Amino acid sequence: MAGTALLGRLTWLVAEVTETVTETPRVRTLILDVDGWPGHRAGQHVDVRLTAEDGYQAERSYSLASAPEDPPALTVERLDDGEVSPYLVDEVVPGDRFELRGPVGGYFVWDADALPEPLLLVAGGSGVVPLMAMLRHRAAAGSTVPAKLLYSSRTYEEVIYREELERLDGRGDGLEIVHTLTRAQPPGWTGHAGRVDVDLLREVSFPARRAPRVFVCGPTSFVEAVAEGLVSLGHRPGRIRTERFGGT
Amino acid sequence: MPFDPAFRFNAACKTHTVGIISRGFRGRGRGDDSGRLPPGQYATDDFPVLSAGPTPHTPLDEWTFTIEGGAEPVRWTWDEFRTLPTETVTKDIHCVTKWSKFDTDWEGVSVDALLESVDHDRAYAVAFCDGGYTTNLPVEDLTGGKAWVAFAYDGEPLEPEHGGPARLLVPHLYFWKSAKWVRGLSLRDEDEPGFWETNGYHNYGDPWREQRYWGD
Amino acid sequence: MTHLDGNAIAGVLEQLFGRDLTLASSRCTGCGAMREVADIHVYRSAGIVARCPDCDTVLFRIVEARDRMWLDFRGFSSLQVRS
Hints:
Strand content of chain A: 25-35%
Strand content of chain C: 35-45%
Number of strands of chain A: 12
Oligomer: heterotrimer
Order of helices and strands of chain A: HEEEEEHEEHEHEEHEHE
Helix content of chain C: under 10%
Largest interface: B-C, 25 and 21 residues
Distance between the termini of chain A: 41 Å
CATH architecture of the largest domain in chain A: 3-Layer(aba) Sandwich
Distance between the termini of chain C: 36 Å
Number of domains of chain A: 2
Largest sheet of chain A: 6 strands, antiparallel
Number of helices of chain A: 6
Shape of chain A: globular
Largest sheet of chain C: 5 strands, antiparallel
Radius of gyration of chain C: 12 Å
Structural class of chain A: alpha/beta
CATH superfamily of the largest domain in chain A: Nucleotide-binding domain of ferredoxin-NADP reductase (FNR) module
């Protein structure tokens, strides 16, 4: 009985950073070793709690970037007026530790073997992180479910996971990746320019009749515009799952 | 249990249920030895925005301020409110989420000036607001030059996200008592806990006695 | 300040209820709307305030102190979870 009672009890775990990866000048990935990590599903997030020497604590949520097949990893974007993200992006070195609660959330989750419908992912900025976990999971599981990622970034330099996305795109396993750059495009850019709007969604996304599973993640205004656009194209609201982020 | 320095720290430091220190993390706050920082607070230069709901945008021509519970309800329109004498004050403010901000500049109408028009002998007040927020205070904490209905911050009209067009300003209590988007006071004989006071936060909220939660 | 989704507080809800609550269906006492918990609006203030996306009724409030929590779920007239 004691075992049953403990099962599912969510508590704070200690995470140790084993490796860091600089993704862009503002974004870094922390690969973690978490004692007692129960495993996760693609799209879930964790709560991170930092404690200063004087006892001050701050808590934030971050999406897991890694496939369930891999150790937990967080990809964090530095928000200049933030108090947690600058520490995680600029200060942390391998061996550092912090507390973590999770993985949590069964809503914004994609399992490769459970959902056979086409997969449509729409990302704004660092909203790509939980969607990347889904794409990594899809590749690791050998899934050939038709999948598309529409990924909006401000500039080419700010595209997170750029090279890995190119590799995934080149596997020929039914994944198509479409970038749009909203602020500036490099010379010779062949992708899209400007914000994600209904026209781009119509051109890029699966038609509503194919009933894709849709996951949208990004800033609030982005998520709301994309979700409205998809509904106007006939996608059922119940099939569109959103995750917005805000604050520091 | 294997030896674990973090666990040992935890045992030594009763203020935290879990005590693993994140090396080099300081957070936004910083200490202060000027004696202006209440216990458990951290000073900041930022002005964090905390809201329990969507930001209301009441047009000034629909805005009124009402004091209920006196012999007659007394109501001011925005234009009438702005003919009242104003005061400019510089105060330290203390949020229960642990940030404090020194030397904030406000302009407003003192609650003393508002209550001059109200015939009452009530001991308690509930501030009510656009959006439904409420907070309770003893009348003696709203009078004697301790509280204002502020409409300007740092020389500018108070921004909606900080409570504009007008918020209560009661700087000697935790800042949740300084209700944003305030629309009036309800005077009463019995104390009636407000939005946060009914769900864990201290009924009075004196930062110097660290009255954050029930029983503090 | 803009709101977050119910999904954003999955951690504290799971700590409280011992299970993932984001897929639970809730009914608002204000307007009767049925929503998945992941879909409701969340404001982080002195505590967590969850509101109905349709009518802004406060669905629940959670205040966390060091060693205690306070819960008020008065805005849910029902909550359906998988057994």
